[in-house]
Design brief:
With 601 residues, the protein is an alpha+beta fold. 14% of the residues lie in helices and 35% in strands. The longest helix has 14 residues.
Amino acid sequence: MQTLLNRMKQKTKLLSTGCLLLSTLFFIAGCNDNPAAVSKSIIPAYDKDVLNSIIVNADSLRTFPFVEQRVSLIKAALKNPLPVMLCQDSLNSHQLLAQLIALSDTGFTKYVFTNDHLPLRNEVFGIYPARQSDIVTVKDPVTLSNLYRVEMYNYGLNLSSFAIVDVKQQQVLLYSHQPESQPDIPVVLKNLAVQIAAASPEVQQSLGFKPGEKDALMASTKTALNRSRCERSHHLCVAPTFIKNDKALWVIVDLTDQRLVGLRWTNVGNTGPAAALTEKKLQDDKITSCFCELEQVLKKNEWSMKYMLTSSDGLRISDVSFNNKPVLRSAKLVDWHVNYSGTDGFGYSDAVGCPYFSQAAVIAWETPKVAELKDDKNNVIGFVLEQVFRSEGWPTPCNYNYQQRYEFYNDGRFRVTCASNGRGCGNNGTYRPVFRIAFAEQHSNFSNWDGKEWKTWEQEKWQEQNSLSNYTKEGYMYKLASLDGGYYMEPGNGQFGDGGKGDFSFVYVTKHETGRDEGENDLSTIGPCCNTDYHQGPEKFIEPQPENINNSSLVVWYVAQLKNDDRKGSEYCWSESVLENGVYTTKIYPCFCGPMFVPFK
């Protein structure tokens, strides 16, 4: 049998214009042999109508020719032996080969059919060079330059599939499936959403003019709108946003049904121009080559660790130890969920990460910084590792600025923290950053203070920090303990002197198991933007059957809830441009959050 590489060379002429929908590509050996059935746990309430909803609904959307063209491609793909739309971005030969290898792996394509062998609509969203943070669970030696990450979305199940492909060895090294998650969308879908938004009469009537496609902001950032199909049917939705005076019009586009599903206005206030982009491309090149493609080693004040920028999980630290004792396996910032309405439920799911070959909506703006950590008497008590992520147009409306910060103290304490510096797309937003903190200790127990004693958690679960929460006199709410000590966990209550007003957090504890990836490698956006309860993403690794966590290797997920404020004297999670000495300068009002971990023996 010819190798995949030879087959790809035979099809070079067919593929020269990019990833095309060609049924001949799917007669790869093994692609259609015994297609795996869809797991009941993935779709507990599967409705067969979801398969045809895109076709039925799209047939009534003949208003725009570009939608008709898209529907034709979808229909053609569903008739293929493997019903997958290939990536429509312009790809090089290695990316094309990686796509073919991934689609020939029955583990990666496990969910492209139902139990009844009906085709589910799938699309390859992107093929990217793999990074070290993508292959944390790969133990065998590999050459990173040969590896690519293939991302596929299942519209019928709202499920993401990922594969790490070695194009030299022509094999899939690992694959994973994440229910209720969505990879970041490719350029072709971003452009489709903008086209639908700009061409819709409802949008033109609301704005009072016909917007240009170039006027759309945040077009590729995932969103939701409660009580629409985005929320009810778990559709893939984005929100191209247009600014008019001191307001922003959110145009919520359903990319599963390819139609407009809602319009919402938010107040963004007045602001000056964005900061100048001085030699930004050179800065991006340095960030990518030095911190996205390579792990850096940091040794300072008895602390030792590695760190690097990820595709979409922010600044990741790993192999953290203090006084030569392992402390953390890893820690990272998985998502920013931003909700702009407590009633309508619409907003963004942001990812932060590298400027190139990245799924991040808000990118690393400068290189990571290491600085001294001082107390209120100017004494050096540790150091900080910090990263800034920014939208290019910040601080103008619908642009974001996030800080991620790790604090390491000379006495062994450490704090995992972050902040939003505004301005965002509204003055009524709630920000929910999602941290994943994996401890190095293999045999730990987790407990919470109930007001009188420590109550050990027997199984994986979650708990909310609210006005009824109990704390020790020191302010501790949780404890992670092993035979020779452990850490008290102190959530934010406005006590850390960084402007934070309280975290109101959700805390989840899950079990780490070798051979099962629950977020150790890079994650796509794992939760919806706009849920106000504990459904922020980490619960996926707990429900429906929590595992026993006694004497186990544990992962703590921490999701703070930060309400922004633009009122004079009360600004929080906010920024504004002020005119000083004839020029605009940006003033920020950060909302820092995150827990402190205090060691004990």
